[in-house]
Amino acid sequence: MAKNAIQFLIFDEDELSATLIENYLKDVKFPFVIHKFTGFDKSKIKNDDLSYKFVFINITKHNLDILDDISISSTNAKNIFFMMSPEPTTDLYIKVLRAGAKEFLRKPLAKENFIAAIENNFREEMVRDEKGKKRGAKIIAVTSLEKNCGKTFSVINIASELAYIIKDRVLLMDFNENLNNVTFALDIDQKHDTNYFIDNITEENAGTMLPSVYKYKDLPLYIMSSCMYKSQKNKILTADNFQNFLDIVKRYFRYIIIDVNNDIERTTKTIFGNTDMIFYMITPNIAANSRNKNHIDVNFDKKKFRIILNKYRDKDESRIGEIENILGREIFYKIPLNLSVTIGSGTKGRTIREINANSDIARKYNQLAKYIISRV
After folding, report:
1. Is 138-375 CATH 3.40.50.300?
2. What is the pLDDT of residues 297-319, one digit of tens each?
3. Which of 220, 221, 279, 323 is the most exposed place for a label (fewest CB within 10 A)?
4. Cα–Cα distance between 36 and 12 in angstroms, integer?
5. Percent of the chain's residues with pLDDT above 70
6. Under 8 Å CB-to-CB from 263, ≥6 apart: which residues?
7. Closest listed residue to residue 191, CA positions, set 177, 209, 179
8. Residue by residue, what is the 3-state secondary structure of the chain?
9. CB of 21 within 8 A of CB of 114?
């Protein structure tokens, strides 16, 4: 057996599960060994050799006694249980999680769900074990006081370019309360909004809940729609429960990009306090930038802070100095105005890469994403 190889134990009378798992593991980059069994045998999950065991068990309403054995064995941190069922009912789901299973997967196993489950638990357990700390996503917030400055458009294209370049999971969170700007712009519909995850996610069920986050096409880009607390009675989003949510979620993504509204209150400050970088969107509008100055001076950490001039045209170059004097800060980055690509993106509900990857504006977002990767 290879040193530090992860053992995959598959307990299922249906040979299809083992066949699918063998095929799905062909592209992974860690050593593993597969053991196949038709019936469950708790003696096989004893961890005398201290190696990691990923245990896949077919569970139905007819073999629930297995959960008693799992409950005992799951106290060993190196036994990681994945339950499988062709009919994963809510009642069965609750019993499985209470027994200590990390994931509950529908049969036949879909490759995307299987790989996500393995990666979630591989990163959570193996990375923490080897480096002594948990991996956490880098967090970028994008905000502005100015309306119609292209903030949400920029958030979408920064996040999509990051996902395109790194080929790893990026979470885009829409925090424009009650507006759903991101989902509207991309013409997508989601079953759960952000507050659903904030209310329900825990350390124990994160690996099962997060796969239900909306995935954008073939990119590893995941989107949480706008938080709707203000429209729901008795719903109060606090800085504490958002912090708890963020502490859990950031261990499952490489980057988290947050579209933040302009209301500076405790929860918004919690977001900014957790960020690695803050992009503040402005336009060449002189009057708007006079209002932006006070907003910037009072609320933001200068070390994390970057000003992005959006909707920039060549004729605006003569105004750059005046804008920087008003703000008392230098403009970090300029994104050109390209109406044909922008309108095409908005009307078709697509990213600019999908509209025209070779356009000047697409190249600028790609360069900005590469800057983030190099610096954060």
Report:
1. yes
2. 877 777 788 999 999 999 998 88
3. 220
4. 8
5. 84
6. 177
7. 209
8. CCCCCEEEEEECCCHHHHHHHHHHHHHCCCCEEEEEECCCCHHHHCCCCCCCEEEEEECCCCCCCHHHHHHHHCCCCCEEEEEEECCCCHHHHHHHHHCCCCEEEECCCCHHHHHHHHHHHHHHHHHHHHHCCCCCCEEEEEECCCCCCCHHHHHHHHHHHHHHHHCCCEEEEEECCCCCHHHHHCCCCCCCEHHHHHHHCCCCCHHHHHHHCEECCCCCEEEEECCCHHHCCCCCCCHHHHHHHHHHHHHHCCEEEEEECCCCCHHHHHHHHHCCEEEEEECCCHHHHHHHHHHHHHHCCCCCEEEEEEEECHHHHHHHHHHHHHHCCCCCEEEECCHHHHHHHHHHCCCHHHHHCCCHHHHHHHHHHHHHHHHC
9. yes
Identify the residue whose tokens are 């994945």. Answer: 82
| N residues, the chain | 376
Q: Which two tokens stand for residue 44?
A: 């096989």
148 backbone φψ class: left, alpha, beta (φ>0; ψ -120 to 50): left
Structure tokens given for 313: 């045209």
CA 117/CA 345 separation, integer angstroms: 33
**What architecture (CATH level 2) is domain 6-131?**
3-Layer(aba) Sandwich (3.40)
Query: What's the sign of the alpha-carbon dihedral 50, 55, 60, 62?
Result: negative
79 to 75, 104, 271, 353: CA distances (angstroms): 8, 15, 35, 42
Domain ranges of the chain: 6-131, 138-375
Do domains 6-131 and 138-375 share one topology? The answer is yes
Task: Report the amino acid identity of residue 283.
Answer: T
Structure tokens given for 215: 């995935």
pTM of the shown model: 0.65
